[in-house]
TrEMBL record:
This is Nicotianamine synthase. PANTHER family: NICOTIANAMINE SYNTHASE 3. Keywords: S-adenosyl-L-methionine, Transferase. Belongs to the nicotianamine synthase (NAS)-like family. Its EC number is 2.5.1.43. CDD domains: AdoMet_MTases. GO terms for biological process: nicotianamine biosynthetic process.
Length: 315
């Protein structure tokens, strides 16, 4: 491991030690500063394979991802409550400090999806939607204006918070549903969706993530598309990694590693229309059909997607 990688691991470990000693991860000046620094040091170009780090560092990384998830949930709950205090919460989404990131991530996911979907999705599931379901909201308002969105989360209070945000918008209230459920208990319903989005923090541990993907492969409709969030290089200190080869039962269509402040990588995969192929190993299309964007630069350098309009889904 080179000096740059060693310095990164050392600083990440120092931040982890500070974060793990905090009495609470609720939003505060100290919490915000620590996680902002953590994100900032994980975004630049540092080619590091977290799977090859020592067992001690890997254990620290696993715990850090859990802490990041807890802090993210508390931050979203705080801002969901703030937004719910307005008569029209959806008019004030920019109050969330990372709203612009969600705009870019949603545009990226929609654009990648548009390349591989032959008809306009009518029913969409988002697994792990949380108290502030910004991806579903942005996709529904900006990119899929007629689709139904079914949001799944384990936490009933998260769903209560999320549903408050759309109640005052008749169109969104009609097209947004919130279900309290473990995705592993959702079976027949999954066959009713054209597209399933899998949030990065659903299945934080590797084995759990694989179980979720295998469950989706068994129960999604043949021909349906999975959009799974992953992480790459140093960003894997923030979120779990999904390797394309782990998408058993799917044909991997696209793998995209962003180079801007959008932290999550995006994998788009399709369940084969032949149901018998669903138990097969992951199939990756030839490289010319995959978008492998390697390398990172500092988030202030701007988005690789720029402000280009997303590709239109076929009618």
């Amino acid at each position: 491991m080179g000096n740059q990688e060693e310095r990164l691991v050392q600083r990440v470990t120092e931040i982890y030690e500070c974060v793990s000693k905090l009495p609470t991860l609720s939003p505060s000046k100290e919490v915000n500063e620590l996680f902002t620094e953590l994100v900032n040091i994980c975004i630049p170009v540092i080619a590091i394979d977290v799977s090859k780090l020592s067992s001690e560092v890997q254990a620290m990384r696993s715990e850090l991802i859990m802490l990041c998830g807890e802090a993210e949930g508390l931050l979203e709950s705080h801002h969901s409550d703030l937004l719910a205090s307005y008569d029209n919460p959806l008019d004030h989404l920019r109050l969330f400090p990372y709203y612009s990131n969600y705009l870019k991530l949603s545009l990226l996911e929609y654009t990648l999806l548009a390349r591989h979907v032959s008809s306009r999705p009518g029913r969409v599931a988002f697994v792990g939607s949380g108290p502030l379901p910004l991806t579903s909201i942005v996709l529904a308002k900006r990119h899929m204006p007629v689709a139904e969105f079914h949001n799944y989360d384990l936490d009933p209070t998260a769903n209560d918070r999320a549903s408050r945000l759309v109640r005052s918008d008749p169109d969104m209230a009609a097209r947004m549903a919130f279900h309290t459920a473990d995705v592993l208990s959702v079976t027949d319903e999954l066959r009713g969706f054209d597209v399933v989005f899998l949030a990065a923090l659903v299945g934080v541990g590797h084995d759990e993530k694989v179980r979720v993907i295998e469950h989706l492969a068994r129960h999604m409709a043949p021909g349906a598309v999975l959009v799974a969030r992953s992480a790459h290089s140093a960003r894997a200190f923030l979120y779990p990694v999904v390797e394309p080869a782990e998408l058993t039962g799917f044909e991997v269509l696209t793998v995209h590693h962003p180079v801007d402040e959008v932290i999550n990588s995006v994998i788009v995969a399709r369940k084969p229309k032949d149901d018998h192929a669903a138990g097969a190993a992951a199939v990756t299309r030839p490289c010319k059909c995959c978008e492998m964007v390697q390398g990172f630069h500092h988030f202030r350098h701007g988005s690789v997607m720029g402000d280009a309009a997303p590709e239109e889904l076929p009618s």
